[in-house]
Amino acid sequence: LHDHRLEYYYYAIAFEPFLIIAIVLCLELALGPPQASRRRRWAGALAVGVYLVAAVADFAYLYPLLTAKVIPYSAWLARMWLQGWI
After folding, report:
1. CA-to-CA distance for 41 and 53, rounded, in angstroms?
2. Contact in structure between 64 and 77 (CB atoms under 8 Å)
3. To which H or E segment does residue 77 belong?
4. Residue numbers in the chain where pLDDT is lower than 70
5. Model-level pTM?
6. What is the per-residue pLDDT for 1?
7. Per-residue DSSP letters for 6-74?
8. For 59, phi and psi rounded to 5 degrees?
9. What secondary structure letter does DSSP report for 85?
10. Residue 82: DSSP 8-state
11. What angle do CA 81, 26, 51 make, to 5 degrees?
């Protein structure tokens, strides 16, 4: 049950390194083994590249919020993807 209080996720720092390692290992699986066919490796590289570009684009989009920059209200509201964030 959500009681509409602010929630702080500073404790997530403890498992962040393990999350990063898990993501890297999953990307390695998506890339495929070295002995896989050229087509399979190319498809894996494309999937990994698309994921990384999307992750960097999302970080760039959320950067003003993550660094507490002053932005217009409409820009702030556009970055509030879930109603519970407001």
Report:
1. 18
2. no
3. helix 73-78
4. 1-8
5. 0.77
6. 54
7. ----GGGGGTHHHHHHHHHHHHHHHH--TTS-HHHHHHHHHHHHHHHHHHHHHHHHHHHHHTT----HH
8. -60, -45
9. G
10. S
11. 45
Which residue in 39, 59, 37 sits closest to 47, CA to CA? 39
Query: What whole-number distance in Å separates Cα of residue 48 and Cα of residue 34?
Result: 15
For position 14, what pLDDT does the model report?
Answer: 85
Length of the chain equals 86
Please say whether the beta carbons of 26 and 17 come within 8 A. no
pLDDT (0 to 100) of residue 78: 92
Look-up of token digits 């992750």? 55
> What pLDDT score was predicted for residue 2?
59
